[in-house]
Design goal:
The protein has 205 residues and is α+β, with helices and mostly antiparallel strands. The chain is built from nine helices and five strands. It has a three-stranded antiparallel sheet. α1 runs antiparallel to α3.
């Protein structure tokens, strides 16, 4: 719930003297997928930031609120998550290099390239051989990530990501988050389980 809270300063503890809900994101509660996506966003915020950053980082706060709003309005869940991930990485100081190789600084060619979490971006063919844990990134995948880095969420949602392209970007961005955090994001595992449930769920007669 996005709320406005009024506090009265006390000697040791502040006291809440008023609260008004701005947006309860009620539609999220009607969809297990949307609810799970919202929990995933909240966990990413929690893992990537310290408590002080959550108070002071207005850009990150607005990113979370705007993404929850779009999910509440029925926006494509996968597109919202990929947009949120790439924006979060930028706001927390881990913006991946997508236009030039982070090792040799040469512009990237429009071919299938390699993303390296350890190098922090997409590598050219020459530099990719020296890096561990590489992930292939297609020409379209690179175009989408470049767009998502610099556009508003409303622009991002105009794109219709194919299942194949979404899986490619999901694998890449999750691997980068996992490398930075040095741990798994628990709610991501739940999202994967939910997808498998939906795939394997028998159709109603």
């Amino acid at each position: 719930t996005h709320s406005q809270i009024t506090l009265a300063r006390g000697r040791n503890l502040d006291t809440i003297i008023g609260s008004q809900a701005i947006n309860s994101f009620l539609p999220l509660r009607n969809s297990l997928e949307a609810t799970s996506a919202g929990l995933y966003l909240a966990e990413l915020i929690n893992l990537f930031t310290a408590e002080a950053d959550r108070i002071d980082n207005q850009k990150l706060f607005r990113l979370l609120v705007s993404t929850l709003e779009q999910l509440s309005q029925g926006a494509a869940c996968n597109t919202c998550l990929r947009y949120f991930e790439i924006q979060l990485l930028g706001y927390t100081g881990y913006r991946p290099q997508l236009k030039a190789c982070p090792i040799c600084r040469q512009p990237l060619e429009p071919v299938t390239n390699i993303f390296s979490p350890g190098a922090g971006g997409v590598l050219c063919e020459h530099c990719a051989a020296s890096q561990a844990l590489p992930y292939s990134i297609s020409v379209n995948g690179l175009k989408v990530l470049r767009l998502f880095q610099d556009c508003a969420i409303t622009t991002a949602l105009r794109l219709k990501l194919s299942t194949e392209l979404n899986l490619e970007l999901e694998k890449l961005l999750r691997s980068y988050c996992r490398y930075i955090l040095e741990r798994e994001v628990k709610s991501a595992t739940w999202l994967d389980s939910l997808k498998m449930f939906n795939v394997n769920k028998p159709l109603s007669p």
